[in-house]
Every structure is written in structure tokens, then in C-alpha cells.
Amino acid sequence: MWHATLDTQHWRFDAYGATKQEAEDAMSRGLVEHAKQTDISPLQFLRDYDEGINYIEMELGRCYRDHDTDLEKAARERPRRPTRGSS
User: Per mean pLDDT, which of 22-31, 33-42, 51-60 is the most reliable?
Assistant: First the structure.
């Protein structure tokens, strides 16, 4: 599954798709609709924010932190820090 995100000064947009293209298309449709609702030129809005869209491939059944860090994968890849009282 793909997750597309865009953060602007006033709004956060999220779109999802089974493929990256589906997520991209969903994001584009949503941004065009938002532009219409807020009396902004849809083409100008897309041009202004297209570079800021992030695409993240995600797996169902996983926990993600800050939208892009798979916590289980991160734990496997870095050594654990000692806890208090352990030697």
C-alpha cells in the first residue's frame, strides 16, 4: 500500500492507493477539489505543491512513527540501548 502526504502552511493532505500511481492520482484529485473549494486555481495549486508530496510504501499490520518509520524494522536494525539497572 502507498501513502501520499502533503503538509502545507494550513492543511495536511493524505491519500492512499494499492500502487504509487493510485496514491498519486488520489492526491491529485483531492488537491484539485480542495483548490476548487477554496477558490484557488487548481493548476497553480498543483504546481506550487507538487514537489512537496511524499510517497511512502507501507505494509498493513505495521506501526509507523511520523508516517515513515516502521518501528519493528527500526528496532531490528539498531542495537538496543541498555536500560537502567542493567549491566
Answer: 22-31
| 67 falls within a domain | yes
- State pTM to two decimals: 0.71
* Radius of gyration (C-alpha) of the chain in whole angstroms: 18
Look over the chain and give the mean of its residue pLDDT values, rounded to a whole number: 82
85 within domain boundaries:
no
Number of domains in the chain: 1
Averaged pLDDT, 42-63: 84
